[in-house]
């Protein structure tokens, strides 16, 4: 994440000490629509959970969730929002940690969710994250993500993700299946919606067939 300066942790801590432009107080709608199909089994890992709205939304629907972010200011706010949310239908935890290493956060997750995390990385970083995800997910587990689409334009910031990239990096030859890919939008507090891609990627193992495509 060198595009965020020599100290990305400090960069994001500074942003979360104020109001992050992507903090809309709710999950991104495109990703939420995909997650309506999330199977009930297994614990969910929220990578780069930010202020926790997606994790809280999932816990309100009965999914146990661990939210992880390296920005302490974000995690402090996430815990406060969870407390204000009141009764949840499943356990919810937030931790300050390294979301780039999901396999070190636990194994056997039923799902990993990612709202604007994968697209922060260059090609090498995305490849490393995919390898970690393969270790963190249980057989048959799913990776749900939303990322900037190719149509998104931001000067000197190559953060776009294509369907072709996802089908290559998370293809059958690598133990994955693309379950669903949909057009979406990233909403913001300060700017018009921008094009995004939302996807569900299933982890395949010899003893656990691929999830059925939607």
Structural commentary:
With 214 residues, the protein is an alpha/beta fold. It has one domain: Vaccinia Virus protein VP39 (Rossmann fold, 3-Layer(aba) Sandwich), CATH 3.40.50. 28% of the residues lie in helices and 25% in strands. Helix 3 (53-60) links the parallel strand 1 and strand 2. The mean pLDDT is 89.
In DSSP terms (H or I, runs of 4 or more residues), the helix count works out at 6
In CATH, the topology is named Rossmann fold
Looking across the biggest beta sheet, what order are the strands in? 3-2-1-4-5-7-6
Fourth CATH level, the homologous superfamily: Vaccinia Virus protein VP39
**Count of DSSP strands:** 7
The total number of structural domains is: 1
Instruction: Assign an overall shape.
Output: globular
Spatial gap, N to C terminus: 33 Å
Question: What fraction, in percent, of the residue positions are helical?
Answer: 25-40%
- Overall radius of gyration: 16 Å
What's the rounded overall pLDDT mean? Answer: 89
N to C succession of SSEs: HHEHEHEEHEHEE
Portion in beta strands? 25-35%
Write down the CATH class: Alpha Beta
**Structural class of the helix and strand makeup?**
alpha/beta
Please sum up the structure shown.
The chain has helices at 8-17, 29-35, 53-60, 72-85, 123-136, 163-169; strands at residues 44-47, 65-69, 92-96, 109-115, 137-148, 176-186, 194-203.
């Amino acid at each position: 994440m060198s595009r965020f300066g020599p100290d990305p942790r400090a960069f994001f801590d500074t942003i979360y000490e104020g109001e992050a432009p992507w903090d809309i107080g709710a999950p991104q709608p495109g990703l939420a629509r995909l997650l309506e199909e999330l199977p009930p089994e297994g614990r969910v890992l929220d990578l780069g959970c930010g202020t926790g709205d997606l994790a809280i939304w999932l816990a309100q629907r009965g999914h146990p969730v661990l939210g992880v972010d390296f920005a302490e200011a974000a995690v402090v706010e996430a815990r406060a929002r969870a407390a204000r949310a009141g009764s949840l239908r499943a356990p919810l935890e937030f931790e300050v940690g390294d979301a780039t290493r999901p396999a070190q956060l636990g194994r056997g997750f039923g799902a990993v969710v990612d709202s604007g995390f994968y697209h922060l990385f260059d090609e090498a970083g995305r490849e490393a994250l995919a390898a970690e995800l393969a270790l963190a997910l249980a057989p048959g587990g799913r990776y749900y993500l939303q990322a900037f689409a190719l149509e998104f334009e931001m000067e000197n910031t190559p953060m776009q993700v294509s369907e072709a990239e996802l089908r290559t990096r998370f293809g059958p030859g690598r133990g994955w299946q693309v379950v669903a890919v949909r057009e979406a939008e990233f909403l913001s507090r300060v700017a018009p919606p921008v094009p995004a891609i939302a996807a569900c990627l299933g982890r395949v193992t010899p003893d656990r067939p691929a999830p059925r495509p939607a």
